[in-house]
# Entry
Amino acid sequence: MEIQVNKVSDSLRKPIPQDASALGFGKYFSDHMFMMNYTEDKAWHDARIEPYGPLNLDPASMVLHYGQEAFEGLKAYRGRDDGIYMFRYMENLKRLNRSCERLVMPTLPLDLVSEALKKLVLLEQDWIPRSSGCALYIRPNIIAVDPFLGVRPSGSYLFYIIAGPVGAYYPEGFNPIKIFVSDKYVRAVRGGVGDAKTAGNYAASLLAQMEAKDKGYSQVLWLDGVERKYIEEVGTMNIFFKFGDEVLTSPLTGSILPGITRDSVIKLLQHWGVKVAEKQFSIDEVVQGLEDGTVTEVFGSGTAAIISPVKAISYKGKEYAVGDGNTGPLSQKLYDHILALQYGEKDDSLGWVDRIDS
Ligand code: COI
# Structure
């Protein structure tokens, strides 16, 4: 399928933010977006790049009532050599298709979507910030658009990709954050949709997130939905704990998001010969380890958050410090290494990086 391109007129181009330190996350959107429609008779069709703008949606569109949708988050990076790089982006697209399957939506033709993604990034390349830690964030989204109020899978869908320059996800920048363990709410249970990247998971997290924020914490650390005992993940990232000389993260049992950065961290640690295990461990073991000093580092991983060190954890009304509160050496090494790979500055022996402008 041909991708039609309808460019925005010069007079309607938006100003590109120049102050990288004020970018924050998710506030700015570039001039174009990719769109494609699905209907049962035509399958995916009408692939096009259009000027960025509001969607024309029927108010009865099923996504607006029953949340049938899936999305992704990925980034394009501007290297110091001026190259444009993407990191393991096919993994994001494959995950998007797994989310589609869970939400009973048609899967996407990944070759076409990959071409569309690169075409959009190249068209918007002036929007890719040049500062370290900043990137063009890309948000593919698929939504159910049948105008219908009965509960069943939609027959028609809209897929679109928008993009915009971002800096650090957290207001703390890349400095350590504080997280709050929720034992009042749960995010997901096995057999649910916790391992799909779908809007409802994030809507379900908001109340806990607001309560944590009111108490001075950036994010919620979720426990398993049944026993409220085992560590699962943090609002917008997966989570790792360094216990002695071993790094632990929760296994992919169906209720947590299979993060691409999570997978990259595990593979890098293995590559470096650092002991790493995906296994269940409880909040009580974490508290014990923070108290007796065996837990020396805690960090989150995610596309938006990159590697985000944690300096304190609150559980049942008590705050526990992680180490001396500064970014630990392993978190720093991972952050530096992953960033250098993403900006095309490191030897990419694992084959994770694509230069897309040449
Ligand atoms: C990402 O890390 O890209 C995500 O999608 C998290 C997001 C909900 C901000």
